[in-house]
Amino acid sequence: MSVSLLEQLIEALRVLPGVGQKSAQRMAYHLLERERSGGKRLGQALAEAMEGIGHCGQCRDFTEGEICATCASGSRDRQLLCAVESPADRLAIEQATGYRGVYFVLQGRLSPLDGIGPHELGLDQLGQRLAQGEVSELIIATNPTVEGEATAHYLAQLARQHGVRPSRLAHGVPLGGELEYVDRGTLSHAFGSRLDM
Amino acid sequence: MSVSLLEQLIEALRVLPGVGQKSAQRMAYHLLERERSGGKRLGQALAEAMEGIGHCGQCRDFTEGEICATCASGSRDRQLLCAVESPADRLAIEQATGYRGVYFVLQGRLSPLDGIGPHELGLDQLGQRLAQGEVSELIIATNPTVEGEATAHYLAQLARQHGVRPSRLAHGVPLGGELEYVDRGTLSHAFGSRLDM
Ligand SMILES: [Zn+2]
Ligand SMILES: [Zn+2]
């Protein structure tokens, strides 16, 4: 017997993080019973996003254009550059703080065993940017994990090579935690109290 | 500024049950970073399922055809009819037990305050089916909640009116619980020990 549309949907939902067989069934039934139009909108949004979203040519954040809205904005301070591991971290800082500079999204962290080195994180591109002389401070907002710390030290070195002052977020972000899940108040405080490094 | 594809995707994901802003962000980033093709497949599966899945003309379960695979099967015992509240309950029984009869999916439970009466549950259609004389036992597998019990009593009465023996699942299903979440062993035992009512 062929696989039904319902079985296909349940299987496809399991691509979502944290969604197993039972959750996928519950989601499929919920949509079919009560949210058909919302389910259609989601299908459309997925198709467009998976096809249309690429990376910003300047900051590597997700965007559907050549350059993201933040990089294209005329009202951001280009002397301040904040390096984050992921788009989610960038969003957390943007939502929690009054930061008006720009970002650089590593899309990962140094992890030699996984084959993730400076090149994979776009650090050659970042070095060129720092060499241009516009950036005066590199705010390093990697996660306080072992790999995040190693990445932070590499970034600080890179900044100093180009005469750019490296800084990092103040203590306040819990050790071993993920920026994305820190409450806004703590994150905002840590961002404001960032230290030279 | 217009809403970006990413923002549209995050908003659309919130249609899923139990998914708030933070989870939706995490899902969107996960798909963009690691599961583009899975995300496309999900979009396609949603589009097809929301458009193509309707209700079986015989049992009211979800199906993309006129009649679902179970009702169309030549190897099911049509003397046994099992009434369940939802497709998820039907699936739980099908997966947990060796039941070889057919089903009737109420797609709800009696709830006069919400305007859900016998007609909304297809009980006129069920009455006609019972009147045809093929069904000898109506296995009532509503949930052990107040409304589920009220529905069970109504169904038992309907069965007796047509000379059909009503039965219900044995004790073993926890009171106040939902069939869908009962472990297979308990559900299988309760199904096998069903009692006349
Ligand atoms: Zn950008
Ligand atoms: Zn059917």
Key structural traits:
binds zinc ion, Dna Topoisomerase Vi A Subunit, Chain: A, domain 2, elongated, homodimer, two-stranded antiparallel ribbon, about 15% strand, 8 helices, about 200 residues, Helicase, Ruva Protein, domain 3, alpha/beta, 5-stranded mixed sheet
Give an overview in words:
Two copies of one chain form a homodimer. Chain A has helices at 5-13, 21-34, 36-52, 69-72, 87-96, 123-131, 146-161, 184-192, and strands spanning 54-55, 62-63, 77-84, 101-105, 137-141, 165-168, 195-196. Chain A has 197 residues and is α/β, with parallel strands linked by helices. The first copy, chain A, folds into two domains: 5-52, Orthogonal Bundle (Helicase, Ruva Protein, domain 3); 62-168, Dna Topoisomerase Vi A Subunit, Chain: A, domain 2. In chain A, the strands form two sheets. Chain A has a five-stranded mixed sheet with strand order 4-3-5-6-7. In chain A, β5, α7 and β6 form a beta-alpha-beta unit. The longest helix of chain A is centred in the first third of the chain and has 17 residues, at 36-52. Chain A is elongated, with a radius of gyration of 20 Å. The mean pLDDT of chain A is 91. At the A-B interface, α1, α2, α3, β2 and α5 of A face α1, α2, α3, β2 and α5 of B. The complex binds zinc ion (2 copies). One zinc ion (ZN) binds at residues 56, 58-59, 61, 67-68, 70-71 of chain B. Chains A, B: It holds the Pfam family Toprim_4. Chains A, B: This is Recombination protein RecR. Chains A, B: Belongs to the RecR family. Chains A, B: May play a role in DNA repair. It seems to be involved in an RecBC-independent recombinational process of DNA repair. It may act with RecF and RecO. Chains A, B: One of its GO terms (biological process) is DNA recombination.
